[in-house]
């Protein structure tokens, strides 16, 4: 866009001056320096990216929780129907139901009706 200067009749070139461009670059650089570590996880004390082993371990923990929930639902369904459940096999659960993290068989208490995983760290599941 070309503008005529009011008093001299000279043409003025539209656009940004060098100082304006430098100022904008400084603002963008400051914003990048502030936000980049948060999004990239660099220099903020955040933990390093997870290793394959820790991701696999987390997946096995989730799988164990899911297995326990399915087993608990099966036992509850059998009890609701009036059946006596003394073992997991009575609830229709295969005898080889094991924790994916440590391959320990799940334990079932007929007295309390509780199903537990004996793997260390899974006590709260």
Summarize the structure in words:
The chain is built from 2 helices and 4 strands, in the order ββααββ. It is mostly helical. A hairpin with a 4-residue loop joins strand 3 (107-109) and strand 4 (114-116). The longest helix is centred in the middle third of the chain and has 29 residues, at 52-80. It starts with a strand and ends in a 9-residue tail after the last strand.
How are the SSEs ordered, and which strands pair?
Blueprint: E1 2-4, E2 11-13, H1 18-40, H2 52-80, E3 107-109, E4 114-116
Antiparallel strand pairs: 1-2, 3-4
Please bin the fraction of helical residues: 40-55%
What's the number of structural domains? 2
Q: Strand percentage, roughly?
A: 5-15%
The strand order across the widest sheet is 1-2
Q: Describe the global form.
A: rod-shaped
The radius of gyration is 33 Å
N→C terminal distance:
69 Å
Order of helices and strands: EEHHEE
Residue runs with pLDDT of under 50 for 5 or more positions: none
Helix count, DSSP H or I runs of 4 or more residues:
2
Mean pLDDT: 80
Number of strands: 4
Largest β-sheet summary: 2 strands, antiparallel
Helix and strand content put the structural class at mainly alpha
What are the salient characteristics of this protein?
125 residues, mainly alpha, two-stranded antiparallel sheet, two-stranded antiparallel ribbon
Task: Briefly say what this structure is.
With 125 residues, this protein is mainly α.
